């Protein structure tokens, strides 16, 4: 994954909030866009915790992950790989030269999970490990946005490390427009 594009229209650093039109895999998902340009987009689904603890695949990292200490299903692409997202102090001014850390945007970075944790851990304040990622080919995400499959909203710094509750609902509730009304959406209106 490369640095986000500086060109206008890039959604890197934004959240994609699944609408009822989104397919089953992404139902009620929140995706953090990591990279977006004319060649396509990549991101990770933030709210799909798995039952497997980090220790099942990366035992050295287990003591350092943000609770609940499990792997998260980042998306349907390359599910045999893991991706670490970390928070780095300093926000936009964070150093990009730290061994094992590649700054993305707004104090978020990718961590090289092959780097020994003691090298990286003093430089971070949050860590979540994702299995796979979400990916879109050139024009695919734009087409999905036109079809109404996603809402695009601003990310808050702790969203990638959300610990409790329903992130989909919480992200919608904090919107200062009509999107906040969708937080109570149910696929079973008869249960209201």
TrEMBL record:
InterPro entries: AlgH-like. Pfam families: DUF179. SUPFAM superfamilies: VC0467-like (SSF143456). It comes from the Bacteria. Belongs to the UPF0301 (AlgH) family. This is YqgE/AlgH family protein. The lineage of its organism: Bacteria, Bacillati, Actinomycetota, Actinomycetes, Micrococcales.
């Amino acid at each position: 994954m490369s640095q986000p594009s500086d060109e206008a229209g890039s959604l890197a650093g934004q959240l994609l909030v699944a609408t009822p039109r989104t397919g089953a895999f992404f139902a009620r998902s929140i995706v953090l866009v990591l990279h977006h340009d004319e060649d396509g987009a990549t991101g990770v689904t933030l709210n799909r915790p798995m039952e497997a603890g980090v220790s099942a695949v990366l035992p050295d990292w287990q003591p350092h992950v943000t609770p609940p200490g499990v792997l998260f299903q980042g998306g349907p692409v390359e599910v045999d790989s893991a991706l670490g997202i970390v928070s780095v102090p300093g926000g936009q001014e964070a150093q990009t030269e730290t061994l094992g850390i590649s700054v993305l945007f707004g104090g978020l970075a990718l961590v090289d999970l092959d780097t020994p944790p003691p090298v990286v851990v003093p430089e971070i304040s949050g860590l979540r490990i994702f299995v796979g990622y979400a990916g879109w080919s050139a024009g695919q995400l734009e087409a999905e946005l036109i079809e109404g499959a996603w809402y695009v909203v601003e990310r808050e710094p702790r969203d990638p490390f959300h610990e409790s509750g329903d992130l989909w609902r919480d992200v919608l509730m904090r919107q200062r427009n009509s999107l906040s009304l969708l937080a109570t959406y149910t696929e079973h209106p008869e249960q209201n």
